[in-house]
Every structure is written in C-alpha cells, then in structure tokens.
Design brief:
- It contains 14 helices and 19 strands.
- By secondary structure, it is an alpha/beta fold.
- A hairpin with a 4-residue loop joins strand 4 and strand 5.
- It is globular, with a radius of gyration of 23 Å.
- The relative contact order is 0.22.
C-alpha cells in the first residue's frame, strides 16, 4: 500500500525540469533522448539565438483574418455577390451551402499604423501601436477545417492525438532556467477548448515536459499548500521518505518515469514558496496594473489581463514557455459582436505586454506569438438559408498569425493572399513551416530535434517544415 501511494505523488501534475545545480550543461544532441534524468539538464541550443522564452497566445475558435489583419477592399466592393465559380468549384466548407454562398466584406475599417504602415482593424487600436515590433504572417494555411484537429495540429504539429506540444518540444530541447516554477505553464480564459489538455500534452516525451495548467482562482495548482497542521519540516521529512521509496521502486522496475515523479515532488515543494509571490499582482505598480487593465469591470477582460501580466512575471522568473488561451472566436453568426467583444478583451493587455517587455529589455529574448487554428471564410455562413447572414465558416486555406520579439524581423508582413482573402498568392506558410521557424528562433534545428519512440525518430515538424527566412531579423 505504501509503495503504491508513493508512486502517485504529484507526478500527475507533470511539473517541469529540475535544473541548475541538479543537472549539467550539455549540448542539445549529446544525451540519450529517452531518459527522464537527462530531461532535467539545461541544454545548449544547436546554434546561437536571441529567443530564450516564449509567450504563445492561442485564440480558440478561428479568428477572422479578413476582419482583423488582412484588409480586402475588393471583397467589400463585391459584398453580397454570389461566390465566383472559379472558387466555388474547388471549395470545401464545413457548414456553408456552396450553391447559394455570397461574398461578405468586412464591416470594420482598417487603418495604417507605425512607421511600417501596416494595416490593422479598428478593433485593434492598441496593437496598432506595436506593429513596428511585429511580423504579420498573412499566408498561414493548415490541413484541417474542424476545431479539435485544427487546434491539435497548430499546437503539436500533427492533427491526431498523442504528439507532444510545441512547448513540450521546446523544453525538451533546451530545458528550463526556472528552478522554482514549471518550465511550461498554461493560462486559460473563456470556457471552450475543443482539444482540451491535448494541446499542452507532452505526448510520448517524458511527462516532465508537459504543460502545467494554472488555476484562475486560489492557489495556482491544487494541493500545492500543506495540509493544516503539517509543518515544513514534517513535509520535508515525508518527501525524503517518499523519495527513498520511489528510488527503491525505480531500481526494482527500471521505470524511468519514476525520475519525473521524484522531480515533481521536489519542484512542488519549492513552488510552495515561489507561487504565492508570483501570483501577487499587487506588487506591480499602479501604472502597470492600469496599463494591463487588471482592474477592468468585466470579469472576462480582467482575467485575461491578469494572465498577460502573470505571463511577464513567469518569464522574468525563468519559465521557458507560457501558453495563454482565449475563447471563443468561433463566429458562425453575429461575428460583429463576437469579435468586437473578444478584441476588447485581448487588445489592451497584449499591447501592454509587448510594451512592458520592450521597456524592461525583455522583448529581444522573449518571442511573443498570436495564432488560432484557422481563419474564417470571405463568404457569409448560410447553413440556415435565412436572410440574416452575420457570420463566417471555418477557413484553413489562408489566415494570419503574428510574431514579435525573440529575433523576429520588426514591422514587416510575410506573404500575400488574393483580393478576396481566399487563398495564398505568395510565400505560403504551413503549420510545419511555422513550427520550424519558431524552433529556429530558439537556436534549434527542427530536423535534429528528435525523439525515438516505437522504433522511429519523431519531430515537431513531422516529415515537413522549412524555416521562413523572411520572418527572421
């Protein structure tokens, strides 16, 4: 009974690496890639790079590129016309009836911003002030037009379950500089997430590389605090005893997953001191709190603002990868209200984060990413065949993501879509290309970052992927 309970531990939390004095500095390709004890070592990248940390915003549901980032005046001019036959004959939709589909221009105005003169929707005035630090990729395309596989593909490089997330691959390749916090943290806003925790899973990588989802209220992780009446000394004594039992079991079975459990116990013990200070946002100046909007009246806006400020505090403390999820952009109807509301949630705090990182000298080493699983169609969704067509269908053929900081070219746009925003005209960027470029910004060659599983070498970019040179500074 004692042995059985000892092995459960807080391993289920899949907290991240123990580093520094507990490991040794090694090159990324020097270690056997199947041992958890090796996973605790801080590793050198394949080559010198600027990016050391990543804050990855994932906009769940598929935000509309033609209403936010990719202005299409010709589409507005032909608003209400039947979809051209040249497009209709090869088009695939999730819900649109092709024979009666009509073009739908954006109801939002676009304005030029910054020295680069990049056009953004009127819904994003604060991000507009940051465009000179950003690269917009207007020619993303993906392989799935359904949410769950699309989200999993964008987060893991593969559309089916079981693959490690990009954050897990990054921590696997480099380790984490943070000693007292997980190397990979997940923050969530909104309710819907089709892919669930699969999006931050470690897949077949050692469990120590899995993302740790922080809670919105109370302690960031359940059961992180000691039970009432348990002193720190008594807790330390019990951990030492459990560690001995785990080591006995590991010797008996040869199960290297037990190393991750031991590491997770120790990290959780250290987090008891680090987490309260991390989450105490009152330590920030009034100016900073106001800039992020953490005291906004709306609860959804307030929660997202807190997540953005917490992300900066996490990377300050060495956390390698922070995911921030916001739902739900799935505007099959009433897109105007949906996107207006969510842009109000996201625009101010994301812009404040970019400006804050820049003022602190952290943007050069912190890659900030904004992405969704796909875009939305340039035609109105007409599945109900009514006259009130106010939304758009899923659109994997062309959509926009952006990056800032971390070695990304400033104030630029990569690629061009056609005059309707329907398909890519130049510089296509597949999800695998996107991931290859992200790894490159961290000094990792996506073809060399591999893990042997079930007799073959796997990588984040599967069997594809090319670094997009135009994104690099």
């Amino acid at each position: 009974m004692l042995l059985s309970n000892a092995f459960r531990g807080v391993g289920g939390l899949a907290l991240a690496s123990l580093l520094a004095e507990e490991g040794r500095l090694v090159m990324a390709d020097d270690l056997p890639r199947t041992k958890d004890e090796d996973a605790t070592s801080l590793r050198q990248p394949h080559f010198v790079s600027q990016a050391k940390h990543c804050i990855f915003f994932f906009m769940i549901g598929g935000p509309s590129h033609i209403d936010l980032f990719d202005p299409k005046p010709i589409l507005i001019k032909h608003h209400g016309e039947l979809i051209p036959e040249a497009i209709a004959k090869d088009a695939n939709f999730a819900f649109v009836h092709k024979e009666s589909a009509r073009l739908q221009g954006s109801p939002f105005q676009f304005r030029r911003h910054g020295q680069a003169g990049i056009e953004l929707s009127e819904l994003l005035p604060n991000l507009g002030r940051c465009v000179d630090d950003m690269t917009l990729i207007r020619t993303m395309h993906t392989d799935s037009f359904n949410h769950r596989p699309g989200q999993i593909l964008m987060n893991t490089g593969f559309s089916r379950l079981g693959r490690p997330s990009v954050g897990s691959w990054l921590q696997y390749g480099l380790g984490s500089p943070s000693r007292d916090l997980p190397g990979y943290v997940v923050l969530r806003s909104g309710k819907k997430l089709d892919g669930g925790s699969t999006n931050w899973s470690s897949g077949f990588l050692p469990a120590i590389h899995q993302g740790v989802a922080f809670r919105r209220e109370g302690p960031p992780i359940l059961n992180i605090d000691n039970p009432e009446g348990l002193s720190e000394a008594a807790h330390r004594h019990s951990l030492d005893a459990i560690k001995k039992l785990n080591e006995i079991r590991r010797t008996d079975t040869g199960d290297d997953e037990i190393a991750a459990r031991i590491a997770n116990y120790e990290l959780a013990f250290r987090m008891q001191s680090a987490a309260p200070e991390l989450c105490d946002l009152s330590r920030e100046s009034e100016f900073t709190q106001r800039a992020y909007g953490i005291n906004r009246e709306d609860e959804e806006e307030r929660n997202f603002s807190k997540n953005c400020l917490l992300a900066r505090r996490l990377v300050e403390r060495g956390v390698r990868f922070v995911n921030i999820y916001l739902s739900d952009w799935d505007a099959h109807e009433n897109l105007i209200d949906n996107h207006t509301r969510l842009c109000k949630v996201a625009d101010q705090p994301i812009a404040a984060l970019l400006q804050d990182l820049k003022l602190r000298g952290m943007l050069e080493s912190t890659l900030v990413v904004w992405a969704g699983e796909f875009g939305r169609t340039p035609v109105g969704e007409n599945r109900n065949q009514g006259s009130d067509i106010s939304g758009r269908d899923h659109h994997p053929t062309a959509f926009t993501t952006w990056m800032a900081g971390g070695g990304v070219k400033s104030g630029s746009v990569v690629g061009q879509t056609d005059e309707l925003g329907w398909k890519v005209v130049s510089d296509p960027v597949h999800v695998n290309d996107f991931h290859a470029t992200l790894l490159h910004l961290f000094g990792l060659d996506h073809k060399r970052l591999v893990y042997r599983y079930q007799g073959r070498d796997f990588r984040l970019t599967d069997v594809g992927g090319n670094v997009i040179e135009k994104i690099l500074a």
